[in-house]
Amino acid sequence: MSVEDDDDIPELSADTLAVLGDFYSERDENEKRFEDLRTQMELESREDMLSTTYFLENWNMSQFWYSEETATLLAKQLLEGVTADTRIAIVSAPSVFIQIKKLLKMSKYEIPKVKLFEFDMRFQIFPEFVYYDFAKPTTIIRTTRLNFTASWKLTSIAACEKGSYDRILCDPPFLSTDCQTKVAITVRWLSKISSNGTQEQGPRIIVCTGERMEELVYKLYHGIKTTEFRPKHAKDRLSNDFRCYANFESELWKSQQQEAANGNVADPPK
């Protein structure tokens, strides 16, 4: 390479280099913490140590964790009135799943059956992990540990998951028609069929996604409404206007349609 070629290479400003340095330093630190955590879990089963802080967000996967307050409220919605026979599916929302595990350790609730349907294989350290790729909405995969060194085998378990869930929360990773539609197919596929053979009185469903997806959400989910609750993300890293949709009312939120009919404008729950 000639001296002239060197001169053509753009130089980054000191501020930009500092930001990149901080990013890579945080990434390396979190990767080390995660590896330490996985080792401790394998040796001691220390799941009580878990937090989303051990899992660095991967923006290429469109990962943005919820704030502690938001994850707690959503987890409580899914756990309200559960029994040992209740089945809960968390689709592409690991921060809510982790919060459910924390709340269940408080022994306030009966212990339901919970599964995390997630693409990120880091979460396979949880026994409830089920590998899920929204591009294949009805292909549900289980990971099985082959040995102590974290080697895994993927096995299709579609038959036992279909139509078996009473509570479902999903957060489609991308704000596109394709992604939203395929995740909705998964939710319908997982939803328990009611005694009359339909899903009209079926499971509680919560959908968290961008406001600009609202019209499509209404088309994809039966009986869904926009709630007054506004999900927040950790460190306000996501700039998109986010909304929470549900097919049921709650003491913790009401639908915007109900508030408008009553002539009220409610503040988001604290």
Structure report:
- This protein is an alpha/beta fold and 270 residues long.
- 34% of the residues lie in helices and 17% in strands.
- It is built from eight helices and nine strands.
- The chain has helices at 3-8, 14-44, 68-79, 94-104, 158-161, 177-190, 214-220, 256-262; strands at 87-91, 113-118, 129-131, 141-147, 151-156, 167-170, 204-210, 225-226, 242-246.
- It has a nine-stranded mixed β-sheet with strand order 5-4-3-2-1-6-7-9-8, with helices on both faces.
- Helix 3 packs across helix 4.
Please sum up the structure shown.
The chain is an alpha/beta fold. The protein has helices at residues 3-8, 14-44, 68-79, 94-104, 158-161, 177-190, 214-220, 256-262; strands at 87-91, 113-118, 129-131, 141-147, 151-156, 167-170, 204-210, 225-226, 242-246.
Any chance you could write out the topology, listing elements then pairs?
Elements: H1 3-8, H2 14-44, H3 68-79, E1 87-91, H4 94-104, E2 113-118, E3 129-131, E4 141-147, E5 151-156, H5 158-161, E6 167-170, H6 177-190, E7 204-210, H7 214-220, E8 225-226, E9 242-246, H8 256-262
Parallel strand pairs: 1-2, 1-6, 2-3, 6-7
Antiparallel strand pairs: 3-4, 4-5, 7-9, 8-9
**Fraction of residues in H or I helices:** 25-40%
Helix count from the secondary structure assignment: 8
Strand tally? 9
Cα-based radius of gyration, to the nearest Å: 21 Å
Question: Could you list the spans in which at least 5 consecutive residues all have pLDDT below 50?
Answer: 1-6, 145-152, 264-270
- Report the sheet-strand fraction: 15-25%
Principal-axes shape call: globular
* C-alpha termini separation: 61 Å
SSE order, as H and E? Answer: HHHEHEEEEHEHEHEEH
Average pLDDT taken over every residue: 78
Structural class: alpha/beta
Main beta-sheet strand count, sense and barrel state: 9 strands, mixed
Strand order of the largest sheet: 5-4-3-2-1-6-7-9-8
